[in-house]
Design a protein that fits this description.
single chain, mainly alpha, 3-stranded antiparallel beta sheet, 3 strands, 5% strand, membrane, Gap junction protein, gap junction, cell membrane
């Protein structure tokens, strides 16, 4: 899979982000995207082929794998990365709209089309809320699908066509567990950064509005 489009998206968003937003971009790019491409994809590459059960009953191994891994970890994280990065497009599109509006009217309508204020501030706040909501949704979904954040060494399966309860073994469970914890920690860090940026922007512009109102009253 080519991740060039996501890299370009993150680079574009970085131009219009606050300091905290730039840290978020760095975390997504360095600790999630690069880790996924460089390591995680290879570790889970042959997860189905390396899943072994102590019985050769036709279909048993496939059914057990599907039961314990309803969605491939690697595809799940790919979808998560794409979904949590997509709300940032709202900010890029809004800035593009401002720039096109200036070209259409052939005059300067904004001090800086990429400055976070007015309507762009609302768009930015909405994108932060969506990113935070999606991060939490995917963490909860992962927890529900796999009964926690763990990679067991051994799973017991008694689903038909297995004739009885069979033992199935997952390859490289320790290595997978380490990367799982790292990716979950990176996701939690992104949630903290999004909430911090949301709080910072709301506090900053609430204070700005309050001071402006106070100055107007004084005048």
């Amino acid at each position: 899979m080519s991740w060039a489009f996501l890299r370009d998206l993150l680079s574009g968003v970085n131009k219009y982000s606050t300091g905290i937003g730039r840290i978020w971009v760095a975390v997504v790019f360095l600790f999630r995207l690069l880790l996924y491409v460089a390591a995680a994809e290879n570790i889970w590459k042959h997860e189905h082929d390396e899943f072994e059960c102590n019985i050769k009953q036709p279909g048993c191994e496939n059914v057990c794998f599907d039961h314990f891994f309803p969605v491939s970890h690697i595809r799940f994280w790919a979808l998560q990365l794409i979904m949590v990065s997509t709300p940032s497009l709202l900010v890029v599109f809004h800035v593009a709209y401002r720039e096109n509006r200036e070209k259409h009217h052939n005059q300067k309508l904004y001090k800086n089309p990429g400055k976070i204020d007015g309507g762009l501030l609302c768009t930015y706040l909405i994108s932060l809320i969506l990113k935070t909501g999606l991060e939490i949704f995917f963490l909860v979904l992962f927890y529900k699908l796999y009964n926690g954040f763990k990679i067991p060494r051994l799973v017991k399966c008694d689903i038909k066509p297995c004739p009885n309860t069979v033992d199935c073994y997952i390859s490289k469970p320790t290595e997978k567990m380490i990367f799982l914890y790292f990716l979950v920690a990176a996701s939690c860090l992104c949630i903290v950064l999004n909430l911090s940026e949301l709080s910072y922007l709301m506090f900053k512009y609430s204070t700005k509005c309050y001071l402006k109102r106070h100055v107007n009253k004084q005048q």
